[in-house]
Design a protein that fits this description.
- By secondary structure, the protein is an all-alpha fold.
- The protein is about 75% helix and about 0% strand.
- The protein contains 4 helices and no strands.
- The radius of gyration is 15 Å and the shape is elongated.
């Protein structure tokens, strides 16, 4: 049987698309700061993971495997890192509490797990 691998050019396209999407989603998440979406943050994290998985799946030529899962998971975490860094830029008076940062870390991990499992 033929061994299917993720080709480097398809991986590069998937990484580039994931980086772009992570920045856009991160800025959107930063804009939502202060809205108090609370528990719904888990639903948003699920959606972020699902979107990243779909982006990686489509841009990698519908390749499914651990490499694509790692790209999707990394993009999901990056979206929350961008949000964490963009909040003070969008709102100069915003103070990030340790609880908010910890919650964003949890949401990032949830999104990464969802993304990895959907592509795997």
């Amino acid at each position: 049987s033929a061994l299917v691998r993720l080709k480097p050019e398809k991986a590069a396209v998937a990484v580039a698309a994931t980086l772009g999407a992570a920045v856009l989603i991160g800025v959107a998440l930063a804009a939502l700061n202060g809205t108090g979406f609370g528990f719904f943050g888990f639903l948003i994290a699920f959606a972020v993971g699902a979107v990243m998985a779909e982006i990686v799946t489509r841009t990698s030529g519908y390749y499914r495997g651990p490499e694509a899962g790692a790209i999707a998971a990394g993009g999901s975490v990056l979206a929350y890192v961008v949000a964490w860094q963009a909040v003070p830029i969008l709102d100069s008076h915003a103070r990030l509490s340790n609880n908010w940062i910890t919650l964003q870390l949890v949401f990032g991990v949830v999104a990464a797990v969802i993304a990895y499992r959907r592509v795997q």
